[in-house]
Amino acid sequence: MVVEFEKQGRIAIITLNRPDARNAVNGEVAQRMEEILDEYEADDDLWVAILTANGSAFCAGADLKEIAAGRGNTLATRKGGFAGIVRRERRKPLIAAIAGSALAGGTEIALSCDMIVCSTATNFGLPEVKRSLVAGAGGLFRLPRAIGMAPALEVIMTGDPLSSERAYQLGMVNQVVPPEEVMTAAKALADRVIASAPLAVQASRRVAVRAFMDTDDDLWRASGKEFAGIADTEDFHEGPRAFIEKREPVWKGK
Question: Counting Cβ atoms within 10 Å, is residue 105 exposed (0-12), middle (13-18) or buried (19+)?
Fold first, then answer.
């Protein structure tokens, strides 16, 4: 499979698996990614997912052989856009675990995730302008939101790479660790997420991801709506009860 899918308890592991092509995105990758995300979203037993890759590179972006062969339109799906993911509407958290480089579309895939754990060897970047191309999978607006306008424009207009350490300093990534520790760190972060009530995590995420797009009035309304939406759930009552009883809560996602 060009994209592998594994369930480990409450965690879904999604793995790009075209290492000989530096995990470049072709039509098969895009379609398979959309199918996996459908399965992840539909499975109430899965509360968080980790997106990673086999091989030395996380993702080199679009498969240029596919574009040269006139199959560039297959690299996007109806629901997910490029790679079946960058425009995908999700309700559940997704963590990128990146040991190698993530350039061009690879950076855009990483930016479409909620959190990023990467390695000291990772470089991000949008080198499209060096080939008279335009990054069209969300990087041109997601990168400024992630690291600020001035450094983002430097990356975008020069096409030069952004190191993992600089990305961490600017707030784009959550953790930078040695390459061999990336998955361990990502799973530890996922464990911290699933320690919280899943419906509350999803509700909170829905508001937070709109923070740079909606007005404060819209966000106030959304926050109130999300709070009201979980008020009748079992987990809503379990949280305070566990606190009073001085025990760990047992979440059901209901």
Answer: buried
Report the sign of the C-alpha dihedral through residues 171, 173, 178, 179, in that order. Answer: negative
Q: Is 28 marked active-site?
A: no
Angle between helices 234-244 and 198-208 (to 10 degrees): 110
The pLDDT value given to residue 65 = 86
pLDDT digits (tens, 9 = 90+) for 142-163: 999 999 999 999 999 999 999 9
Residue with tokens 């980790």: 50
- 108 as an active site residue: the answer is yes
Q: Which of 249, 229, 226, 222 is nearest to 237 (CA)?
A: 249
Task: Break the chain into its structural domains and give their ranges.
Answer: 3-194, 198-244
Q: Which two tokens stand for residue 194?
A: 């699933």
pTM, whole model, 2 decimals?
0.95
Name the strand (E) or helix (H) holding 46: none
Residue 160, classed as helix, strand or coil, is coil
* Rg, Å, the chain Cα set: 19
Chain centroid to CA 244: 35
Per-residue DSSP letter, 215: -
Q: Which is catalytic among the residues 6, 128, 238, 248?
A: 128
- The number of beta carbons lying within 10 Å of the beta carbon of residue 139 is 29
Q: How far is CA 59 from CA 158, 178, 222, 245, 249, in A?
A: 20, 18, 35, 47, 38
Which of the following is catalytic: 6, 108, 154, 180? 108
pLDDT level of residue 53 (50, 70, 90 thresholds): very high
Q: Class assignment of domain 3-194?
A: alpha beta
